[in-house]
Amino acid sequence: MQFILESQTNPNHCMLGEWLKKFREKRITPKNDTVYTIHPDIVNYTVSILKEYGSVDAEGVVYWAGKVEGNKKFVCAAVAPKIRGSRFGFYTDHQANADFVEFIRSHNLVYICQVHSHPGDYVDHSITDDKETAFRAEGLISIVVPHFGKFGLLPFSKCGIHLFTKGAFFRLSDRYIHRNFKTINFTSSPILKDLRNADKL
Questions:
Q1: Which 8-state DSSP code applies to residue 79?
Q2: How are beta strands 141-145 and 168-171 bridged, if at all?
């Protein structure tokens, strides 16, 4: 069985309906003081992976993991899982996800966020993204990066940042993103791990 995370399911799919659905949804500003701190090297590594897939017109994904201390979540690891990417989505199987889980457990880390790319400037979750994102759990963050990551992730507000809560994904407001997502150098070097095989794409 495969998980399917994609912005579209086929080349002829029109995203107007999804755009209208998302347009009507109110972006949320959670009433919490959770702060996500991301090492700049994590951002740079993630962009390099997404751009690599984008160079062959495909979506890509990177999983972020780290430590949680009270209301602070420190993203200190970026992991590229084995996937099959295309312009219309990417596919990851149970083994690839199991390899990721084994890796972060061996480093005593917790899964915090997935970052995946879309081909254009549409950064909302598609219906398939909502239903098929792996490891859906309360508090999971999902970042959608436009244009295959060609223009990077920063500022974070140009991406679509979504929070999984109460059984569904909700896109976060710019106000929340500006206040709660930070890039800061840690004292220790981040973990950058590629779990893909030799023929990566």
A1: E
A2: unpaired
pLDDT at residue 5 in the model: 42
- The helix, strand and coil proportions of the chain, stated in percent and rounded to the nearest 5, come to 30, 35, 40
Burial class (CB in 10 A: 0-12, 13-18, 19+), 157: middle
Task: Return the percentage of the chain with pLDDT > 70, whole number.
Answer: 85
Alpha-helical (H) ranges within the chain are 16-24, 40-54, 94-106, 127-132, 174-180
Q: Where are the domains of the chain?
A: 17-186
Sign of CA dihedral 135, 163, 166, 22: negative
Q: Classify residue 14 as exposed, middle or buried by CB count within 10 Å of its CB (0-12, 13-18, 19+).
A: exposed
pLDDT grade, residue 105 (50/70/90)? Answer: very high
Q: Are 155 and 40 in contact (CB under 8 A)?
A: no
Q: Is residue 18 helix, strand or coil? A: helix
Classify domain 17-186 at the CATH class level: alpha beta
User: What is the pLDDT, as a whole number, of residue 126?
Assistant: 80
pLDDT confidence tier of residue 29, bands split at 50, 70 and 90:
very high
Query: In angstroms, rounded to a whole number, what is the distance separating the alpha carbons of residues 34 and 181?
Result: 9
- Verify cis geometry, omega within 30 degrees of 0, for the bond prior to 11: no
Nearest Cα neighbor of 90 from 199, 8, 4 is 4
* DSSP state for residue 82 in the 8-state scheme: -
